[in-house]
Amino acid sequence: MSIESPGHGEGVLFELSGLCRSFAGVEALQPTTLSIFAGEILGLVGENGAGKSTLIRLISGVLRPDSGEMSWRGRPVVLDSPRSAIDLGIATIHQELEYCGHLSVAENMLLGERWPRGWGGWVDWSALQAEAGRRLERAGCDVAVDIEFARLTAVEKQLVAIATSLSRDARLLILDEPTASLAAPDAHRLIEHLKAIRDSGVAILYVSHRLDEVLELSTRVAVLRDGELVHVGDTDALDGSELVQKMVGRPLQQVFPRTRVPSAATGEDPEVLLRVENLTREGMFEGVSLEVRSGEVVGLAGLVGAGRSELARAIYGLYPADSGSMQLLGRPWRPRSAWDALQAGLVYLPEERKRHGLVAEHELAPTLAIGIRDRLTRWGLIRLSQERDRVAGMISDYDIRCSGPHQVVGTLSGGNQQKALLARWLEREPEVLVLDEPTRGIDVGAKAEIHSVLDRLAAAGHGVLLISSDLPEVVGMSDRVLVMSRGRLVAELSGESQTEREVLQAAAGLVAGGEAS
Amino acid sequence: MMRLRMTAPVLRRMAWLVAGNMALLAGIFACLLPGDTLAGAVSRLGTVLRDTPRNMAPEMLAAIGLTAIIWTGAIDLSIGSVLAVCGAVFAMGYSHQAHPVLCFAGCLLAAGGLLATNGLLVRWLGIPALIVTLAGLAAYRGFALVLVNVGVPGFDGNLTVPEEIYRVPGRDWASGILLAAVGAAIVFELTCRRPRLWLAHGSSAAACRLQGLDLPRLAISAFLFGGLYLGLGGILYVSNQQTIDPARMGLGFELSVIAAVVLGGTNIFGGEGSFMGTVLGVLFLYLARQALIYALDDVHARQAFEGALILAVIGFDCVLHRGEHRMEELK
Lengths: 517, 331
Fold this sequence. Notes:
The structure holds two protein chains of two kinds. Chain A is an alpha/beta fold.
């Protein structure tokens, strides 16, 4: 489809004309015509599977188009490798950064370039570090260049990746979900940084599921749906709900469903499913006490590094706490392994689903069945017919969109991967769910479905501990919100005080402690 | 500026090995003391130390070469068989009265060529290095036997090399060659870009590809480097043998070399390690074997103890830092 927004006749930096690409006969991107202007931020949105990744991979030279043309500053170009895109001035920063963790920041920054040489042609390490430092400084980043890259925080890695791209005279920066793994203040820091980059004349193609960011940042927004470019227009002409409607092709009724009845309204005192008292693990969290009751979604908010995920893993039994105690379903809870937790009725959805949640090369069927394998096994043998039936049931019940149980799980969209993980654990009928960033990097449609599942679970009497860096989500979905800062629980917010502002203030350490509600 | 650029686990392992090597030397000395005077024991320890570079040179050079290959995330299991091919080439040259320099150059070329072939096969066929070189392990051994049977007139299973001139590198120059080669490798590691790119390849091939690095060239250069060092090791190995027997040369060599590399802190999956660690790892294994010779009469018991010692060093390090490893995985 060819759509062009008016009023941008000059300054075209990069232009796609009728670009399309198919995979095994399926058209992932229909013929697309789009212009990107120097000094603008063009937001690119769409549900998972809409064709965003294909478009990005075509522009960054990873894929070659089936047909169509690209031009750079009016001259036709062929991008047949990532190198050719880099040489042209196109830099892509993927959602999951690829880096060499054991090499230093400086080495990572100059990996594909000639390194400064000194006497005898040997690498001049001081000059290498100085050059990396200069590049970071020019990009406004304050990061040490001589430490291992793996030791950087998530936002520092993003900033270094951006600085690296800009240092190579990138004129078009493609950012794929850059804030997906960042807490709100870090995301804000990155957004401010991007505005400064835009003002320097660099064009940015900003791909994100966080629509508030897209609306705040971008000058124009392009919407892809089912491989088709369905809208390109000025951001000012749209609001959030219109944008969502264009993405999904239908209005979304309610982003944060709440069918459950609060215990205060019923006058009941629901059972405490999980109780944590003064739990401490040195260097991670200290003196944390909390309760999750039946029928309750408890939000756990905080900045990245506040200790939320670490606490969740200790509750799940991935490592022991140094001190403190826990109770699960009224009994003392001292898990020695994740298996203990699964058997006791506690499940955990990890923050990084691809690394810790699933094996990307496995098929969907074993991915789903592994959660209940013990229940499908008799005398050490898996009952295959039962497995088939249960897997088919899960795919249908949780609306996992796939070509069938034999589809490789890594090829599912992020939202469907997450639904598969949820289905895998929910099939065990757990009492308590600890969910770490369950909607990270997934589209609005899948997000709404997961929110709906969580609401139904709580309504059915399960307890949910919801860790999320998405402030609207954690505030909108939770019955009360606990806020962690530097390893400590600093606030419990509920009722009218349960707002994004209050959560942010507490997370940033602006609340002295105790209950804020 | 030459600076150590190693990760904390590698540095930690090296510290362990330095301490372990000192302990093994003390252990050897303790084994030498009974039945001898102090001066006699010191003198015998001196002999052990004097012979050490010559005896461990082939293994150490091969280990340095293999370290580079492992850094890229690959491995080469065929090095023992490549050593046998070196022996066959040497035997062919000797039996045709070729100049010793030509015989040694043949060893170098054979090792370099075969390892480069492994590298090319891994890249072209897209088959994991483990499988390609496992096939090479059998194929090259057979190739070595074909070579000697066809190329050495009257070959009857082994070939004796009595001329001293053919044994100079392995017997007289081994220490010097080893010192120079190890020094060159360490300087190369500390001052050049290529070893860092090998590590980068092993750490994240995707990152390297996105940065526009030529991955096939990088991988093949690591195999070539490995071939050069294995070839040097092969020269020292064959020229230190009384007889050339390609059917038995280098049997189990690859396992002992891999053990030394891993012991030295190199990550078996690539991306992490150091040549210095490998040097310390080879030295540790050699000294352990020496200590076991003095401590135990039974050859099989020695082998069992050697395996247990490797497990103990790596296991102790891992157990001590198990928490760290787990946290690293969860990051």
